[in-house]
UniProtKB/TrEMBL annotation:
One of its GO terms (cellular component) is cytoplasm. Mg(2+) binds at residues 200, 219. This is Thiamine-phosphate synthase. It comes from Romeriopsis navalis LEGE 11480. Residues 7-125 form the ThiD2 domain. Keywords: Magnesium, Metal-binding, Thiamine biosynthesis, Transferase.
Amino acid sequence: MERAVLRILDANLDRAREGLRVIEEWCRFGLERTDLTDICKHLRQQLGQWHLPEIRAARDTPGDPGTQLTHAQEAQREDISQVLLANFARVQESLRVLEEYGKVYRTDLAAAVKQIRYQVYTLESTMTQKPQMPALLAARLYLVTAPVPNLLHVVEAALNGGLRLLQYRDKEADNATRYENATKLKFLCKQYGAVFIINDHIDLALAVDADGVHLGQQDYPIEVARRLLGPEKIVGRSTTNPTELQRAIDEQADYIGVGPVYETPTKAGKAAAGHEYVAYAQANAPMPWYAIGGVDAENLGDVIAAGAARASVVRAIMQADDPKVMTQQLVAQLAQAPSG
């Protein structure tokens, strides 16, 4: 039984790494995306570290009945998208096998492969389903709006300052006002090439054809949002602790909010998660994540030092004397953070 498990691990480590290499070559030569190429290479190297000598030694290619099996669909691909989808499926199936049989062999292997599997899901979303996902990955600063009289003026100033990711959030307005504001904000974001997300309201995101929706812990399950909005839209989730982070991973959220880092009136009565949770997210979140909650220009350096590469702000820009200059300052600070 032990040798059979080792043979299963050997075969699926090979399959996963081969599939990743196929994907990596398209990232490199087809998309000419260094960032995605590096992700593929890193994932292959992570798997390679687990391809231990005792696993390789169990290999018996001549005695493997699976080497003779084939399927007509494997003989031809209609286009590049089919190549990518087939190899993503190949990688994900192999990783699931590695995770399950890894539990018998070494639990640390199973845990490592689980995290790799989530990263592959995110990579697939970036490359094959969500046209705005690359823009989200590139955006380190995320502005969440608050109700202010000069909403459009503040947002456009921030966009002029380099903002490329905006969430429209208004808990107070009626539906008609929210729809009017969202329509205008989407137009501004389109002008500046920014990603436009709606807070909570899946119906509003659908009505204005937003790029996605951000859901709190008490909102609909992510699968419901995907079913209503379509697989090409971005779905984010707020998290405040490791348990909620794990749930967001299991739901395959495209990105998450991590916080509140500090106490904030935006989340009245919510205890601060602190730098400890920021550090936890840095070590455990496979998807892009944004530190949020009382983050501003004065404490952003501390948040970055705790492990954040991205941050979401509200009052820091919405109440700034000069939103454009403040945005420029925050963007510049985040540009100095390590990649994440």
